[in-house]
Amino acid sequence: MATELRLSADSAEQMRSIATDVIAPHLRAGDLLILSGDLGAGKTTFTQGLGDALGVRGPVASPTFIIARTHPSEVGGPALIHVDAYRLTSLAELDDLDLDTTLDDSVTVVEWGEGMAEALAGDRLHVRIDRERGGELDMANPEGGRREVTVRAHGARWADVVLAPATQRGPATPGASGVAGDLG
After folding, report:
1. Cis, bond preceding 171 (omega within 30 deg of 0)
2. Secondary structure class of 167 (helix, strand, coil)
3. Nearest CA to 101 among 81, 86, 87?
4. Using CA atoms, how far apart are residues 163 and 176, in angstroms rounded to an integer?
5. What pLDDT sits at residue 94?
6. Which residues are 39's β-sheet partners?
7. Tens of pLDDT along 78-119?
8. Alpha carbon distance 183, 165 (integer Å)
9. DSSP secondary structure letter of residue 56
10. In the 8-state DSSP scheme, what is residue 29?
């Protein structure tokens, strides 16, 4: 059974806070995160928050054209492997990146990995970011708009982990759904 948490973010700062305050405290070497959402939803912004919290060498930027970028830890923790699978068309192309050789020693984030990256690990977090869109919102402020973030935990690794904003954490309840919240 997957654990699910739903949160909202109204700014890039709040998106980074979800990564920094809600997800990053639970991460360790060997963890896989799969990020999905439309262009401009906030996947790279989320990953920047993870990079800040993990103390990796940056800056964390979209690896769209180089496909994968390694950010070594500057604080003795795991490296952050940041992958953009947008231009990949098959699991074979993802496999060619040899992510399995670094998976155990790093925190691996795969943007656009839904439907492919699940094969890398049964234990994973799937972060779906949906952004409100439309007309004036996109024209006047392409970075703006509320984001709805859904985090689904899969596998035994996450069974006893409480994914919630620090102010909402309580005792672990295996398989429980997170409470909708706002990090405002």
Report:
1. no
2. helix
3. 81
4. 10
5. 66
6. none
7. 999 998 887 776 666 666 666 676 778 999 999 988 888 888
8. 7
9. B
10. T
